[in-house]
Amino acid sequence: MTDVKPDSDPASEAETLFELLGGEPGIRALVDDFYAIMDADPSAKTVRELHPPMLNGSRDKFFWFLCGWSGGPDHYISRFGHPRLRARHLPYAIGEAERNQWLTCMLQALERQPYPPALRERLMASFFETADWMRNRPG
Ligand code: HEM
Questions:
Q1: Which atom of ligand 1 is nearest to the CA of 55?
Q2: Is the CB of 104 under 6 A from ligand 1?
Q3: For ligand 1, atom 24, which residue shows the shortest CA distance?
Q4: Angle made by CA atoms 124, 126, 131, in degrees to the nearest 5
Q5: 3-state class of 66 per DSSP?
Q6: Distance of alpha carbon 37 from its chain centroid, rounded?
Q7: What is the rounded CA–CA span in Å between residue 48 and residue 37?
Q8: Which residue is closest in CA terms to ligand 1's atom 27?
Q9: CATH top-level class of 20-133
Q10: Whole-number Å distance between alpha carbons of 134 and 102
Q11: Are 30 and 21 in contact (CB under 8 A)?
């Protein structure tokens, strides 16, 4: 007798973060909301002004990045190579204020998604770590 579990169907295996986020349509919705909030919220003015006037390019890059980062298709790496996120952010002055504005936009965007609270918390913890590591000037 084998000890193969009756429920060893791959569909019943743990979902990847990419799947938990709703795959490409879910990540697209998160990114669209994130930049729409950044564009509209006066308290995100400093971080908005670091970005180009039209946000389409930023939106696509962040979408491609998050797909791969969450375990989905590597759209970003196949186009641009290794993300080297800290190096790619060096042209932009990022201190605590910019970090906090970015994270506040992300918190609001996450609240608009149909994610369970534990998933939102997990994502905010990861985004905090990455955003904090991106700081490149005091203050
Ligand atoms: C800490 C606050 C942050 C600020 C102020 C910031 C700002 C920016 C700006 C101004 C750009 C350039 C947009 C463009 O070229 O259209 C950018 C690009 C990008 N950001 Fe951020 N960012 C922050 C945090 C993050 C975090 C936490 C992530 C990932 C979780 C991230 C992922 C990206 C990616 C993937 C790009 C595209 C890079 C490229 O290929 O040029 N950013 N960010």
A1: 16
A2: no
A3: 131
A4: 90
A5: helix
A6: 14
A7: 10
A8: 131
A9: mainly alpha
A10: 11
A11: yes
- Which ligand 1 atom is the nearest neighbour of the CA of 69? 30
Q: Which of ligand 1's atoms lies nearest the C-alpha of 102?
A: 2
For residues 69 and 74, give the distance between their C-alpha atoms in angstroms, rounded to a whole number: 8
Q: Where do the domains of the chain lie?
A: 20-133
Length of the chain: 139
Count CA atoms within 13 Å of residue 116 on its CB side: 4
Q: Is the CB of 27 under 6 A from ligand 1?
A: no
Q: What separation in Å is there between the alpha carbon of 89 and the centre of ligand 1?
A: 6
Predicted TM-score (pTM) of the model is 0.92
CB 73 within 8 A of CB 93: no
Q: Is the CB of 64 under 6 A from ligand 1?
A: no
Per-residue model confidence as pLDDT tens for the chain (139 residues):
444 544 545 554 678 999 999 999 999 999 999 999 999 999 999 999 999 999 999 999 999 999 999 999 999 999 999 999 999 999 999 999 999 999 999 999 999 999 999 999 999 999 999 999 999 999 7
